Automatic annotation (TrEMBL):
Keywords per UniProt: Membrane, Transmembrane, Transmembrane helix
Taxonomy, superkingdom: Bacteria
Statement: the UniProt record of this protein carries the keyword Transferase: no
Residues spanning the membrane: 21-45, 51-70, 103-125, 131-148, 169-184, 283-301, 307-329, 379-397
Name the UniProt record assigns to this protein: ABC transporter permease
Entry's Gene Ontology cellular component terms: membrane
Amino acid sequence: MNPGDLWRERALGFWNVAIRYIRLMATGGLMVAIYGTLLIIGVYYQSFLDWLPADFPVLQILTVLFAFLLTRSPVRTFLKEGDLVFLLPFEAHLGPYIRRSLVYSWMLQSTVIFFLLFLLAPLYIERLPGDTMAFAVIMGALILAKLWNVLAEWGELRQQFSISHWRHRWLRFAVNLVLVFFLLQTDWGFALAIAVIMMVVLGMYYRQMYDKQFLKWETLLQQENQRLNAFYRFANSFTDVRHVKSPVHRRRWLANQFDRVTHRKANTYIYLYGKTFARSGDYFGVFIRLSLVGGLLIYASPEAWDWLVVVIVGLFIYMTGAQMVPMYFHHDILLWPSIYPVADHMRKRALKTLLRGLLFVQTFWFTVIAALTPLSMTIAALTLLAGVAVSLYFTEFKLNKSIDEK
């Protein structure tokens, strides 16, 4: 098999697995999250632009944002553990494999930049100099700059010491800052001068890295595994991924609260899932993030659209519940929970009890935020009712169905 076919086989293998997980995520709450995000953007975007102060540093923030996105240019290689033995001797013949990895990484990351630019287009046209044509030129220039950064990143990955890699990355960030600043200011002459300098550096400096230094296979494999684990952790937020490596946090102040659970057979899984929520995976982090984002949106809701608060509460309560469902399968790879002398229906009942309590806490939090805003107390009361209703619907009906589907 030639290197190009090997890369194609591995890329297709990854996407076959990824598409299966994406389908599972779509039924596990991802589509609700996407629809909710689009709804929030559609409702709040114009209000946000109207609210934004005239002296807000839009230029500086966009410059830093896009300079960061340009500088961060990881290369997907689809390498595997065995490649350290079987592919390393053929490094000199892997040109087609490497070129496909570079093009794939560039196109994927350029897509992110394209959609972000599309999202920020109204902000750019309203607050920065330039028209639609200038915006299109900026978009094309940033996509080409992303290609330059991917190629530079690939050269820097060959360096022996990580400190040298980070030094080069910071230098690229500085160059990207200057380039993006001139582009957003529509100073085409200065931007073109920076682009010419970047091409000269790529041809004369980074080309030497390609020719004189070998690939750091251990580093490439480590980064590939990190990106795979990041995808699986994201998928695990919506569906069960058995082999995902979840981080563990001590969080004594929270985990110790579940030590108060009465020690009897019926509470076995309440204790286990309580400790799991507090320490394992990212369940606690997801709960906090959704609570904060939902509270912020409630607080920022315009009075003319007060009914939207009820929609936000229902949406975020549902999203939180959907993200907690994988907790049911969190310990399936371990032997000990399977030999507990506890009926299986108590396992579902325990998760239902814990999740109901968490959703009620989140409902109370949203109600307090609604009561502190200029919105009427009627809306605050409806917020409470909506939160309780969605919490009960999810725990009493949706939870069992979601578990059975997985």
